[in-house]
Structures are given as C-alpha cells and as structure tokens.
Amino acid sequence: MKKAVTAILPTKAPHASVDLAKARTGISGLDQLTSGGLPRGRPTLVCGGAGCGKTVLGLEVLVRGATQYGEPGAIFTFEESGEELAANVASFGFDLPGLIAQKKLIVDHVLIDRSEIEEAGEYNLDGLFIRLAQAIDTIGAKRVLLDTIEVLFAGLANKDILRSELRRLFRWLKDKGVTAIVTAERGDKSLTRNGLEEYVSDCVILLDLRVADQISTRRLRVVKYRGARHGSDEYPFLIGDHGISVLPLSSLQLVHAAPTERISSGNRDFDQMLGGGYFSGSSVLVSGGPGTGKTCVAAGFASTCGPDRRALFFSFEESPAQLSRNMSSIGLNLASLEKRKLLRIISTRPSGFGLETHLFAIYQSIEEFKPSIVVLDPVTDFAVVGSKNEIRAMMTRLVDHLKTMGITALLTSAQSALALDGSNGDADAGVSCLIDTWIVLHSFEVAGERNRAISVRKSRGSAHSNQVREFVISDRGLALIDSYRDATGFVTGSAREEQQRHDAANGAGAASNGGRRPKRSERQTSSS
Amino acid sequence: MIGKSNKLDSSNGGWCPTARAANNADAAAGSADGIQEDFWELRLYVAGMTPRAEAALVNLKRACELHLQGHYSVAIVDLLVNPQLASADQIVALPTLVRRLPVPIKKIIGDLSNLERVLIGLELKGSQVQQ
Predict the structure, then answer these.
(1) Active-site residue set of A
(2) Cβ–Cβ of A130/B79 closer than 8 Å?
(3) Which among A53, A233, A265, A283 is least surrounded, fewest beta carbons within 10 Å?
(4) CATH classification of A262-527 is 2.170.150.70, yes or no?
(5) What pLDDT is stored for residue A512 in this prediction?
C-alpha cells in the first residue's frame, strides 16, 4: 500500500519543472514585466491593429537576439520586402544589411500574389516549410520572425488546408526549438483576425495605439504567458530612437534600498531643519504658489553637485540660458557647473509631447548622464498634457524609477495662488504619498509687504523642525531667518526686523523675554 | 540569381517530351520576338516524389499532351534536392506548377486534379476555344 503511494507521487517537487526557459528580448521593460523574456523555443503571438508597432517589436527582438545574445535570427516577411524592412528600422540604429552580411540574420520575403496563383487540387505548404528550414539551417537561427503570416489567408483560397497547415507549422517550429514571434492583425471579436491565437498559446502580447486629446499613446499588454508570472496591466511603450521601450507602471515590488546617508539641500540652516539634509536616494517635493521660490530651492539643491554626484535639471518653464541667468541673480553659477559637466539642464515644453514621451525622454537622459540628483521643475506643468490620474501614474513610475536607481529627486509643484496655507491637495499632482520629504513654501502678504516662509510638511524617518521659518532670497542665495514671534504670533519682514531691533536694544537679557523664541528652542518632530 | 539553367538540366526529373521543345527552350528564353509565342516553358516544383507529386505530374502530362502537344517543356524541380530554389522562385505551396513562358509568370498550386483550373491557370482555355 505504502509502495503504491510513493510510486504515484512525483519524485521531484512539482514547481521545479515549471521554471520555463526564457529568451531575453533586450527590450527595456519587456523583459522586466515578463520576468525574463519570451518563452524560449516556443512561438509568441504579437497582435495589434495597423501601425501599432508589431513589426518593430518583432524585428527588435531578432536584432537584439543577434547582436546582444548571440542568437542568429531568420526573418520571414510576408508584407514588406527585405529592403523596405531594412529602411524602416534603420532609424532605430538597426543595421539589417550589415547583420545579414555577417550571417547573423537572414531575411526571406515570402511574396504571395493572388493574381498569379491558381489553385487546382490539393496542396500543402511544404514550400514554406522548406524555406523556413533552409533559412534556419543556413545561419543556425535560434529566433524566427513571421511577419505577418496572416497574409497567407488573403493569398490562398482554401482555408481548410491553410488552417491545418498553420497548425502543423507552429508544431514544427516548436519541434525545431526556435523562439518564434508571429505577428497578426487584431480582429473585431477575437485577438487576431484569423484566430491565430488558437495555434500559438504559450505567450500572447497585445499592442494598442490610442489617441486621446490629440496625443497618441502606445500600450502593451501580456495577455497570456503560460506557466510564468507576468505583469498583466497595460503598459505604455514608446518607439524611440533606439527602438521600443516599455515603461512598467512601477516595479512589481517595493524593494528600494534605504540608505541612511544624508545629502545637503544646498542651505546649511535648512539642512538643520531637516535633521541633517535629505536622505540620499529619497524623493523630495517642494510645493508652493507662484513666486514662492521653488526654482531657487531646486536650483540651490542642484548646485550642490560635484564630480561624484552630478545633477540633472529638467526645466519645463525656463530655457537653460534663462535659468542660468535668473539663478546667477541669487549667487548660483549654474553655467559654470554646466561647463564642468557636473550639471545638465534640459528644457522642454510639457505640451510638446505626450506624458509617455516625456517620461521616456527623462529616462533616457538619466541613462545617458547618470546623475545622482534629478530636479524636475515643476511637475504640475504636465496638467496640460494629461489628466490628474495620468500625471499621478507617470509620477509614480518616475519616482519609483529614480528610487530604484538610488537617485535623490527633487520635484517642484506649483500651487494655486489661493492656497496660502499649502493645504491644497491638488497642488502636489497627487504624488505626496510617494514622496519622502515634502517642503512647503509660503508667500503671504502682511502689513503691505510680501514675505516668504518655508516649512517641512513631512519627512519620513527623520526628525525635522515643526517651525515655519521665514526666508529671504538675496544675491547670496537663500537665507533662513530665526523665527520671531511677538504677542500676536509669527512675525516676518519689517515687523520682524522691528522686533529684532527691539530685542537688540533690550540687550542680552531679552533672550528670556517671552517676545521671541530663539531657533534652538524649536521642537523636533519625527514622522515615518 | 542562381544558375537556373544548370539546375534545370541536372535536376533528376528533368523531362522534355519532345526534341523540338528541348531545342527551343533556350531560344525561347533568349528572344523577345513573337516567334516563340506559342511555346510553354513549365516547371513543376515538388518535395520528393510523393503520391501527390506523382498525381500532379500525371495530371500535367495529360493536360499538356491534350492542349500543348509539341509546344512545351516541363522541368521537375525537387526542392529536397535544391531547397534554395524555394525562396528564389517564391514557392510556398507544393506542388506548384510555374509557367515561366509565355510571360507573365503564372503559378498553379495543387495536384492539378482540376483540369479546368489548370487550363485557366495556364491561360490555355481561351486559345483552345479559338482553335
């Protein structure tokens, strides 16, 4: 009895065999959300409407396979000729003719012209099989692209033969052990017009191109991935200068490192308020109304850059020259930092492209410049190209990405002029929950003058001041001023100067006077 | 592209029904004049002599003897022997009969069991009626 039971039970743990071999696509983001790439040695179906990037995706997987992973590829194109294909992808830096010459790729244009074909009796697609085998064997192809095999349905009349032959073809590709990508047009009711998903069931990727408010967004979804965990959401993707990039909304887990190292905010007094500066690799939000000095705080932080911590400043309102000039008025020499390549200022108009394109451009600049500090000034400008939810999703991805890279990020956020107390929930572009340190800048009118104040609204895992401190912006930069109170409360500007003079006149004894509270008496609060 | 005429001669199934057709094959390919207008150069692509390929050959012979006697040549191309010709000559389905001459090129796929379709494919139907 006992023997019988052990015979039935598998000898190995069942999950040990489930681990599928994967073939990396080399497409940034796609490998991440498929946890390692496409199923190796099996066909993958890529479907979508016209012009949504099926061919580019397929070609990129083959080109990257050939160039980065040492896996030669065979391309069967049913629509475009080899020359057309090469011309279309040359702009991504894919050198098809070069790869063909190096025998890393082989391209066969399968031309089916219905006008010259007559069907008289039974046939099969052995001709296509022979071509596939010939191409695969010639260069030892490990990857195969069939783009798009559905053209056969238009070229050949006998659908019964076609269906049974396609079934045989995909079986044959599996037996051959090649990682195949089959592209297909999207159908009205089914994933593909001719029901190809019936034959290719291991992995199905759906591409989509949507236009909302005149801005088009490409999206990718892994509909099915047999035997593997995969992100099932729709992920925006871009066809950029270097091919496709998929932007996972956020990484699947929260696994950011938590360094305890502090970096200066660019102002010693303010560092003190923060309990020693920002945490390295954290995200900082600076919010405030117009003219509260957000850009000054941001530029002050960016100017702390050095050879081992470079800063990348994205300005969505000012050009690099304007920013340098304006900041030189507060004693920050951004131009010289830029010249020494410690700082890079990138200016773009938010309305220029869609959110995904912006995000991608930001990713790419980070990839190139490899900064330790990134400043975005201001993120609320994106409201012109996206809804609140979209901006929030974009910011989630961006902040997440920056944290993963260990980059300290400072985002500024414009507040409506009406929200003087910084309590306006809309002002933070919905990102405050992602943010580690939130600094609120105030600008208020009192007794015929406009004064500025700064406070730390939250700072995770760090003791920080609870005070609202007045600050002045002068040609020497930001200066925090000791908090002064009179009987009526917090005093600023001329009233504070008056109080200071009054205290000075009263001599040192005034220190114990209830009229003013020196900054050392401030209470440190901590939130986490 | 590839030395097709050599392949043609060496292919094991090369089959020319009449001496005249064999002699005229090259002349027809070389001349643009209308002299050889009535000459049909045909190729039958197969992958080994399967029953379907045999059937296609028998059906083709019958059709040619009936409608093209003395005006044609047939070469059999076995893609198992010359697989590279499949892509060079754009073959997808098998068996495929290709009419190389007269131009334009015509392809008839299948075992050629439907004689009517074969004649339409070869554009022989109309001329037969006239004769």
Answers:
(1) 79, 317
(2) yes
(3) A233
(4) no
(5) 42
Residue A57, exposed/middle/buried by CB under 10 A (0-12, 13-18, 19+)? buried
The residue behind tokens 């790419």 is: A364
In whole angstroms, how far apart are CA A220 and each of A147, A239, A452? 18, 12, 46
Longest CA pairwise span in chain B (Å): 40
Give the domain CATH number at B92.
3.40.30.10
A213 compared with A286, residue with greater pLDDT: A286
Interface residue B82 vs chain A (CB under 8 A): no
Contact A126/B79, CB-based, under 8 Å? yes
CA distances A319 to A286, A330, B93, B108, Å, are 20, 17, 62, 66
Q: For the segment A384-401, what is each residue's pLDDT rounded down to a tens digit?
A: 777 777 788 788 888 888
Q: Which one, of A421, A363, A430, A427, lies nearest residue A395 by Cα? A: A430
What are the CA-CA distances from residue A310 to residues A157, A278, A307, A408 (Å)?
Answer: 63, 16, 6, 11
* Chain A interface disruption, residue of B50, B79, B84, B92, most A CBs within 10 A: B92
% of residues, chain A, pLDDT over 90: 38
**pLDDT for A249:** 54
Neighbours of B1 (CB within 10 A): 8
Cβ–Cβ below 8 Å for B94 and A127: yes
Question: What is the distance in angstroms between the CA of the first residue and the CA of the last residue of chain B?
Answer: 38
CATH code for the part of the protein at A18-246: 3.40.50.300
